[in-house]
Amino acid sequence: PSRQERHPDHEAAAELTRRAAFYAGLAKIVTTGEDGTPQAPHRPLLVLHYMQTYGFTPSVILDVTPVIEAKMQAIEAYSTQVSGSDTSQPQTLLSQPGFVGSLRARAVTFGAMIGCDYAEAFESANPIGTGDLFSLVTKTIA
Length: 142
Fold this sequence. Notes:
Order of helices and strands: HEEEEHHHE
Distance between the termini: 36 Å
Strand order of the largest sheet: 3-5-4
Largest sheet: 3 strands, antiparallel
Number of strands: 5
Radius of gyration: 19 Å
Strand content: 5-15%
Number of helices: 4
Helix content: 25-40%
């Protein structure tokens, strides 16, 4: 999740991810696999955070057009949280009318930025490099 978020557990998860990525690369921390053999240190090349409640300037925008319907179905599967159908519970940010629609609208907005129907925004705490600028271009001009 994003490093700055409304829910403290989500912020904590982002911090745990950052720490885990760092500690996993330290040679002096010895870990073993399920079979008991030592594991080599590993440092992820890239850690990305996805947008939740608070917006940010994306480091990367990814075309999610092929999977947008599956994403929306997965979100709507949590109907007790996002539909507001349980009227015995107080309304939350997630159960407000229009919440699920706002997620789709945000995907449309980011999609328009890169020339596709739907996209998801991610941020990186570190610069993202490439050896080929043209490989980053996805938008076409008709």
